Amino acid sequence: MKVSALSLFRGIITLLFIVILSCGIGLGIYLSMPLNAQKIIFIPKGSSKSIIAYLRNNGYDVGKLDVYILHFLGKIQSGWIEIPNEYIESKIDVTPQDSTNIESIEPFNIIISRGHFLHALISAKAAMKSVTLIPGETSYFFLREVANAFNIDIDSLQKEYDKLSPLSDGIILANTYNLPLHADAHFIISYLIDTSMAKHEALSREYLGDFDKEKWFKILSKAAIIQKEAANVSEMPIVASVIENRIAKNMPLQMDGSLNYGKFSHTKITPDRIKNDTSEFNTYKHAGVPKTPSCAVSTDAIKAAIFPATTNYLYFMRNKSTGLHDFSETITQHEKLVKAARDIQRNAQKATKDSKTIESKKPDSKQDSKKEDSKETPKDSKKNTESKK
Question: How many domains does the chain have?
Fold first, then answer.
């Protein structure tokens, strides 16, 4: 039986329609399938293929078909994205993982359709806010700054920090961090610690050839003292040499900066404080470097701790004229510098006092005017003066 050309054409069109309809229905079902995700996601720069591979390596149920769909939808954004609330089908209760492992994966906390997820990758840019951890600052003050910046309860932020940080201070590197505005306490602390730990490992491998956490944390403790004591970057290796030289001679470090730990970061160090502080950071009472860093450090301080200058210096003191430090090899040299500084200060105080005395002895123009108006004779003036004695 012969089939007409028209019937054949109609058959092909019908078949194509069925195939297209089936594909459309299948694609619709595929895009409506639920997918576990994070509300805030970091997307690296790269092609759709490399980004999908990155997401898959981080636990996302995505694959090759998603690459083709994204090619059709548009270009994926890099950086932080935040899934819009209207895309979220439900939330997941999660127990945060241990973020001290730099390879840990942030837990999924929402369920979203695949279609909405892929669309968010090209459209849902997160609002960002930056926060700066200054070299030498402590976690006590930095966490309060973060809490204020992101409107987060300080207790919840401190709780996450205590739970996730391997050290009470010094683990978060001094830097400026850009974070999603609506990030929660766990996300912020996880990101700060994971990012810093990745940098710690990179620096350790660059400077030492490997990464031993315990060894590195000791370096951070030394770097914290250097950070607090040095007046500038160029002084850091010299201060580091003083630490090494004093340890080699079994001398206590006796460095005030280490006492500016925690909530005492901005507190002036006094003899009374040195006498009564019993913490490990009191290097007048305890030998060697404290086991824990006292503050956040810069990469310059870390480098100085690893590569100290070669000197014979054992002492240093701040020169108030220059703002820098004067270093000395012997106690005799040091005491001469101290005496000279005290003499300069004493002379300056005396000069100030003399200046005030001279100023107070200057005649008052109003009194002079009154005297002129009274037209006293020298004799009358003498009598008046004698009567005031």
Answer: 3
What single string gives the DSSP state of each residue in 334-345?
A: HHHHHHHHHHHH
Global pTM reads 0.75
Which value, to the nearest 10 degrees, does the dihedral of the CA atoms of residues 138, 142, 144, 146 take?
Answer: -160
In three-state secondary structure terms, 131 is: strand
Residues 192 and 276 in one domain: yes
Higher pLDDT, 209 or 33: 209
Domain match, 222 and 328 both: no
> Does residue 196 lie in a domain region?
yes
Q: Are residues 71 and 171 in the same domain?
A: no
Burial of 304: CB neighbours in 10 Å, binned 0-12, 13-18, 19+: buried
Residue type for position 294: S
Residue 12 lies in a domain: no
3-class SS at 129? strand
Claim to verify: residue 307 and residue 319 sit in the same structural domain = no
Helix, strand, coil abundance in the chain, percent, nearest 5: 55, 10, 35
pLDDT score, position 84:
87
Q: Looking at residue 103, what is its pLDDT?
A: 37
Under a CB-based contact definition with an 8 Å cutoff, are residues 302 and 219 in contact? Answer: yes
CA angle in degrees (0–180, nearest 5) for 154-158-164:
145
Residue-number span of the structural domain to which 120 is assigned: 27-92+107-126
Residue 113 and residue 182 in one domain: no
Structural domain includes residue 270: yes
Distance, in Å, from the CA atom of 285 to the CA atom of 135, rounded to the nearest integer, reads 25
DSSP string, 208-261: TSS--HHHHHHHHHHHHHHHHH-SSGGGHHHHHHHHHHHHHTT-----GGGG--
Give the span between the Cα atoms of 131 and 319, in whole angstroms: 33
User: Distance between CA atoms of 371 and 360, rounded to whole angstroms?
Assistant: 19
Contact 322, 257 (CB under 8 A): no
Would 55 be classed as within a structural domain?
A: yes
Q: Are residues 275 and 298 in the same domain?
A: yes
Token pair 């492992």: residue: 101
Nearest to 196 by CA among 217, 174, 172: 172
Pick from 80-94, 207-221, 249-263, 285-299: least confident: 80-94
Angle at 339 (CA atoms; ends 338, 344), nearest 5 degrees: 100
Say what the pLDDT of residue 382 is: 38
